[in-house]
Prior knowledge:
Layout: E1 6-10, E2 17-18, H1 21-35, H2 51-61, H3 66-71, H4 73-87, E3 94-95, H5 99-108, E4 112-117, H6 121-131, E5 140-142, H7 149-163, E6 170-175, H8 178-185, E7 190-194, H9 201-206, E8 211-213, H10 219-227
Parallel strand pairs: 1-4, 1-6, 4-5, 6-7, 7-8
Antiparallel strand pairs: 2-3
Amino acid sequence: xxxxxxxxxxxxxxxxxxxxxxxxxxxxxxxxxxxxxxxxxxxxxxxxxxxxxxxxxxxxxxxxxxxxxxxxxxxxxxxxxxxxxxxxxxxxxxxxxxxxxxxxxxxxxxxxxxxxxxxxxxxxxxxxxxxxxxxxxxxxxxxxxxxxxxxxxxxxxxxxxxxxxxxxxxxxxxxxxxxxxxxxxxxxxxxxxxxxxxxxxxxxxxxxxxxxxxxxxxxxxxxxxxxx
Length: 228
């Protein structure tokens, strides 16, 4: 039973880490194998999107119909997952400065930590494992659960409340894109946006984030937000 009234749901890419090139390559290899194309992979802005949504957008840019996309869609996702798991050992993933120190402090304060990420679940945990962050997270909402990010938030909340016994009133969604903010607002949750991805502090403020920080180096600022 969780004895704390604070829950934080973290995005991964652009928020905790950067540099997962193997994930990008998994798209290239999967799309090439199952759909005979690869030139549109670089054309999609992946920020804040689920793996399922990104894949659909890539294939739609290639002119495929919904039926053509759906035919090998799950097989392609499965291939991408297998490709990533086989190659993650070669990933050079950078953990943003201050991240580990912040997560350590949150654990010491018994904050419940979860994930809301567009990554397919096996890819998410493999990526975190490669980055040395697996020990902080044991549940979440993933791109394999749903293409809609707000429904990933719903899944993570359900696990926290129904399986882990969380009944607190302080819930924060932490991410680096407007999509993270939008997904949290669907459930009236507070948002902490971090400008370590492709969006600036101003852009994150303008999209309606409740709090915006440049990075996780200032742990005291984050803690002040949680316990104000």
